[in-house]
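Minutes, project check-in
Item: structure for the 70-residue chain
Input as provided by the requester:
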Amino acid sequence: MPFADDDIRVDLMRARHADGRVGCAVGIAIRSAALRPLGLHPDQPDAQPTHPSPPAWWHTAADRSPWAQT
């Protein structure tokens, strides 16, 4: 694992729903300094599309393509 024990935190969150069922979720937090050696850092720009989305007809044609039929 590329992280030291004190660089990562895992939290288990558990709650009871109104109908009595138990629900669980896991929260994972990693220190930003531990991500920097992996090429990830807080100064990175957010991922944004660089080109406009294809027109609606393109998506329809792709759905009708024989390669899309499986």
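Outcome recorded: The mean pLDDT is 83.
No further action items on this chain.
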